[in-house]
């Protein structure tokens, strides 16, 4: 069902990308740069060397690509027209609220 709130798994996924993967991508990218050895010499030691920083950088890239692909698949599964409408206009069609689980009765 479509709702206006994010569930716990969605919040954890977005939080992981924003506060773990993206900062880790930046830090490992800086650690791989030879010019950063003079400015931040402890960064390579912290990550276990330049090759370890490369490996972590590559794994984080794979996780970000997987997140993007899964995100696109979920958009297509949820209905791309409604998703595009919400991206462009800010309006998202939600399911109508249930009436206590009962169907309305017709009077004769």
Number of strands: 0
Label the overall shape.
elongated
Order of helices and strands: HHHHH
Tell me the Rg in angstroms. Answer: 23 Å
Helix content: 55-70%
Give the biggest beta sheet: none
Low-confidence stretches: none
Describe the 3D structure.
The protein has helices at residues 8-32, 36-39, 42-47, 50-78, 80-89. The protein has a domain at 8-66. The relative contact order is 0.11. α1 runs antiparallel to α4. The protein has 108 residues and is mostly helical. The model has no long low-confidence stretch (mean pLDDT 84). The chain is elongated.
In short:
The protein has 108 residues and is an all-alpha fold. The chain is built from 5 helices and no strands.
Topology (SSEs and partners):
Layout (H helix, E strand, L loop, with lengths): L7 H25 L3 H4 L2 H6 L2 H29 L1 H10 L19
Helix pairs in contact: 1-4
Main attributes of the structure:
single chain, about 110 residues, mainly alpha, 5 helices, elongated
């Amino acid at each position: 069902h479509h709702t206006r709130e994010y569930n716990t798994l969605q919040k954890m996924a977005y939080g992981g990308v924003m506060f773990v993967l993206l900062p880790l991508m930046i830090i490992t990218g800086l650690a791989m740069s030879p010019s950063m050895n003079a400015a931040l010499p402890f960064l390579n030691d912290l990550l276990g060397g330049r090759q370890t920083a490369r490996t972590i950088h590559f794994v984080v890239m794979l996780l970000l690509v997987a997140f993007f692909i899964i995100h696109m698949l979920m958009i297509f599964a949820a209905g791309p027209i409604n998703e595009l409408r919400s991206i462009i206009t800010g309006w998202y069609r939600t399911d109508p609220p249930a009436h206590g689980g009962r169907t309305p009765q017709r009077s004769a």
